[in-house]
Amino acid sequence: MSASKRRPAQLLRRGHKRWYGRRRSPCPQGNAAGRLTVRELGFTWDWPIELRYRRLKGHPVVMDTLKEWLAANPAPAELFTQSLAVVAKRLIVGEPFPFPVKEFLDEVGFMDDRQLQKAIAEPPQLTGDGRHDAYLGALAEHLAAMNCLQRPLWSVESARFLNTFWFVSELKGFRPLSLIESPAAFRRRGIFVAAGSLSRC
Predict the structure, then answer these.
(1) Higher pLDDT pick, 79 / 189
(2) Which of the two ends of the chain, N or C, has the fewest CB atoms closer than 10 A to its terminal CB?
(3) What's the rounded Cα separation, in Å, for the pair 88 and 3?
(4) For residues 135 and 20, what is the distance between their CA atoms, to the nearest angstrom?
(5) 166-167/19-20 β-pairing
């Protein structure tokens, strides 16, 4: 396969000098210490978190992942306004279910561990719909498990579990996928979601 037909990730793994991230341009020369900063790499927010930047033109890179970059360059706390408690309040006043959750997940991708723990710690009010209450409990438990944080006690209260199965997607074609991909925190509550619906960044 010629270099022009290879995917960027393949070229990155091979240390190809012309590809880095999703841009194609001459590789920067690095700073005085001989290392490339994320800014010099042409960093964009749509890079996959797992994408690694090492071994570009022989320069060691400061950051390996987006999470490392965020840890070194945390956003101001006042920029994060979403939490599961806020999601519940928005559902109570009648906002359609997916949208508050999606906006919360948009911010989760840029939170550090301390900010995420705070966002899931406050107990959300019961919304009046048992499915949504269970979903918020599952989401809190899932985010805590994925980020090695303390699981909020409110997330395992009896009101956060369903007695019947709920497939979040109304498209029947997604049900087999949801059965396979649904994380344990959702599955044990009788909720089935595709893994892609929990990843927004």
Answers:
(1) 189
(2) N
(3) 50
(4) 38
(5) unpaired
